[in-house]
Amino acid sequence: MSGKDIEINLSYSNGYIKLIHKTIKKFINVDEANYQSELKRTLNEIGVIFDFDRIYIYYFSKDPSFMQIDCQWNKEGIRPKRDNKEEEVVYALPWLIRAIKNGEYVAINDVKELPPEAIFEAESFYAEGIKASIIIPLKNENGLIGFVGYESLTRTITWEDNQIQILKEVSMSFAHTRNKIEKLKAYEATVKGQAILLDNSQSQIWALSNVTSYETVNEAHAEFFGKRKSDIEYQDLYDVYDIDTANKLAKVNWKLFQKNEPAEIELEIKNSKGENRLLQIKSKPQRDAADNIKYLICTAEDITEQRKTETELYKAKELAEAANIAKSQFLANMSHEIRTPLNGIFGFLQLLELTQLSSEQREFIREAKSASDILLHIINDILDFSKIEAKKLAMEKIKFNLRTTIEDAVSLLAPKAAEKNLEICTLINEGVPEEVIGDPSRLRQILNNLISNAVKFTKKGEISVIVDCLEDNNGIANLNFEVKDTGIGIRREHMDTIFQSFSQADASTTRKYGGTGLGLAISNELVKMMGGVISVDSIYGQGSTFKFNIKLKVTKRAADYKFIFEKLNDINILIVDDNDNNRKSVSSYFQGTKLNVIEAKDGNSAITAILSNSNTKNKISIAVIDSQMTDMSGYELATALKTIPSTKEVKLILLTPVNQKVDSEILKEYGFAAYLAKPVRKHDLLDSIALVMGLKKEYKEEQIIIKNTVKDCLKPRILLVEDNKMNRKIVINMLKTRSMTCDVAVNGSEALKALSEKEYDIVFMDCQMPVMDGYECTSKIRLIEGDKKHTTIIAMTANAMEGDSEKCIEAGMDYYISKPINFEIMFNMIEENTKERKSMDNYNSIIDNNIDNLVRETGLDKEDAREILEDYIKAMPDLFSGISESIDKRDFNKLAKVTHELKGSSGTLRIVSIYELAIKLEEAAKKQELDECISLFIQIKDLCQ
Length: 945
Known about the structure:
- By secondary structure, this protein is of the alpha/beta class.
- 48% of the residues lie in helices and 20% in strands.
- It is built from 30 helices and 28 strands.
- Strands 12, 13, 14, 15, 16, 17 and 18 form a 7-stranded mixed β-sheet that branches.
- Helix 10 runs antiparallel to helix 11 and helix 27 (862-889) packs antiparallel against helix 28.
- It is elongated and about 140 Å long.
């Protein structure tokens, strides 16, 4: 190398070093204001030193698929890289962008040497006349942000390593400066935005560096105290405010710092106008690296007006609740006051009806009872509606028999339907569960409302109640009910309003048929509370169908009656009725049995069916006959069958209207084995057939089944606790009509005394009495009885408000009857709770037969053994009553429990005969073998004769 070449290289080297030093120093202090001017000057210096024709800098946009030129330089006489600063598509140069993303630079000595894949770049470079170029990426901590291009348009260049290194270092200072400026701009924008938000916020905001020192505040906080921000920032509380204000703020700040976590506190303090204002202050600590509180950030809302409003609302709520309580108390008192005389009216009317009266007098009594019923219905509707309106109506969740509840509702309205010669039938389809959890009384109320309306608005024809189970998922049954009538129907324009309060189809309806217009509104709300919807389909002049669905949890599927009739093979039942729905209803009762059903639509068809099948496998064994048919009555059909030799063996069961009196002796003369009142209950019909066919041992050939009568053999021991003279007189006289008597107590204290001297089957307990009320009296009775015994106590009260029944049950009462008393319900309760009793003399054989064995096995004295056995036989009537009741109700769980008690006591006393039968009875109860249970119970009772 010649001396001249060495001199030139040294000159270049010195120029490079000065360039790097000057550029780095310059860009340390560059800011946004002089960035572009200094950048252009530096690009010019680089261009001169390296003899470039053009230099440019591109940065990627927010959308990284676009880029824009930021700064450019070009030698005089050379056109610029871009005439305008516009966004360009990044992937117009795909090879180049990929290369700078993946490497530290891209050096192009000669455009002709571009690789084949750089077709777009070659086209662009040729178009611009570029001979050589080096592109260096610009990066920050997040990655690639742009690139710098150095170009020659006049010659090719062989890029040397030292040149490339210098250009990389210079380019790095560009990226660093750009990054610094962008961050500063972002920070300033953030600070400016925060300042705008803070200073325009209605909430007060401030930061504390310690308990008494401000760091910063916003305008709202300064204005509250009549200050400027500059008066408060970085100042001490005691240098800014009066001593009282400073003390209050310092005290609050201390509490917030002490909590050492996000906190909330209320502070009452004067503002700049001297007004007392209530501030709700929230604080959040900001911590340093050592987890110490650096600042306490506080915000405050002025809640003075809000608190005033809350106070006013609270007072209004208290007044409303007080008014609601007063309203409830008024309704409860009115309910009591109205029901007490109503009880007298109903009672005396029923007693009067039992005396010798003329037909005219009986008509007057009938009208008076009808008017009283309407009045009671109105009172009940108003009470229910007020409870719904006050959101005080609660739903019970108890286990109940669904079929029984439905049949009870239908039976209640059957007499009224019979008075109008209307047929009423129930069809509970297969798949409907037997036992569910819900509120049986409210379901019954819905059905009563709908059936009552159907009876009221139907002059002739029939009413049917249809129940179906739409689905059953996860133990929840979706039950669908339909109440269908052939009544007057509803006009289309009125169908949208009938479920609203105090609404009926039209004004004439109220005048003609009466009612409050609340029944359907209440039913609508009750159905909603049970998770369902109620609707109606109707054709004016032809009838209506009310539909509703509810959801109930299933506890027992449809009852299985196969075991009752499993001893009978190919038994055929003939259903004779001229009403299609009645036949369908009765036929449905045999689903799940082994009995075959044949239907006949009238008497002549029945005779034909019996005769035609007499010598076939379809021979009729039992005929269930309606008493009233178009071609002949049930009695006439029975007479005809008696004259035919081949039909004499057919057992006959008569179905009669509920209001038709029946003479059992006459029925026997006609050849009927049993009779049932319509609408027929499934259990009653199947029980009757079981008795008639000899599947139940209690049946005797001459026996006629009569439902709903108190057994004459029972002599119930009743205590009536009632302070009202009129009510006592009514109950006493009503009991006399069934040959019953009762003891009387006029208050709770007298009742306690009576119970201490005598045992009772049932106590009818009034709730509101002087000296001691029914609730207190019942609690004391239960306390005295303990676990030794349990006397049945039934509440009788004129109250019918929310919580009354619960209050009675909580006090220890077993059942609840509201006044005016439904005496049929009362007599049913007496029958169900009257214990079968025998004198101790009847059980002497137990003592005589077992005392020696007990003495031998235990070593007891004979007198002690006798005393123990006497205690045993004293308990026998209650145990036998429990077993009998469990069998009647098919309550196998209770049957097993009571039998287990009998087994335990018999085994302990070495009464082996009863002990062994009790073991078998308990096993049969667990297997739900009804016939076996009946047989074993009869054997046990025989041992006690």
